[in-house]
Fold this protein.
Amino acid sequence: MSVVESEHLIDLVDLSKSYDGGETGALKNLNLYIRKKEFVTLLGPSGCGKTTTLRLIAGFETPTTGKVFFDGVDVTDVPPHKRRVNTVFQKYALFTHLNVYENIAFGLRLKKEPQNKVDAKVKQMLHLVGLNGFEKRRVDTLSGGQQQRVAIARALANEPEVLLLDEPLGALDLKLRKEMQVELKKMQQELGITFLYVTHDQEEALTMSDTIVVMKDGLVQQIGTPTDIYNEPKNAFVAAFIGESNILRGTMLKDELVNFDGHDFVCVDKGFGENKPVDVVIRPEDLKVSEPADGQITGVVQSVVFKGVHYEMMIASNGFVWKVHSTLCREVGDTVGLSVIPFDIHIMKPTLNETPKEA
């Protein structure tokens, strides 16, 4: 049964997973496709269903309902070792009694590949992950970043069509994690294979992904490019989870005109009706600080924190506290003006039974 277009590699159809047999589901009626040669990230907080989704694709779990398709072929009941995927976990599960060479060669030896092919493939993988000359090193003598590279090389040596990565950078320090983000994206582009990446780290998702799938409570909240997800969040959860946001209630007076914080603002959004309640999202970096007379609204600086590339200021106005990122520093207690251009005001339907966060 074919359910996908030619560019689709994986299709998840009405996929659900419950671990207790009841109504509480780790995954609820997920429909998602993943294209060939795409870097897709499943992003969300703990318990959102992202790792469950990865395990269903890998074959480590069986769905309660729904189907998994590869190239239009139903693989829902196909065991993991017969699927065209390999997985890299946060705990790398390397074989400490084997050296780097033998760890990378492990899957090839299981397939009884000839020695000349094993040598060539291990050499290729060592070059790809930047570990030339490490063949004879014991893996327990390597740094965390080096061990992670070995785990990736071992997974890639078997030439999977899809590499599944379950928070593989979580155990690394910040500097190394940032370096590996760039390296992973470079590997994916060089190899031309599909990467499915699981993380709760927004920066990782924004840095590496072609497509981000934001999840919460077993449900997809939004699917889009990093730019779309950041600039056009579909709801308050996405806006708050991806980066930092000021989210407050407002009233859509009419197309391209919204009222919030006691003032009317021109915006670019349409189709919300007239005099309708809405949520308003403005990113901290999109608020411009000025003299009070030059701002659209005025407020008083409550706190200032230096963040390295900018100052983070909390500015109170009409009962709302704005989070503002600026290269210009103002002192606590200063009265300042704040302005925002229409394009940077994002309007959403109000979140039911949930008060928008202030930042």
Remarks:
- Residues 1-6, 355-359 have pLDDT under 50 and may be disordered.
- The first helix runs from residue 50 to 58.
- The two ends are 47 Å apart (CA to CA).
- The chain has eight helices and 20 strands.
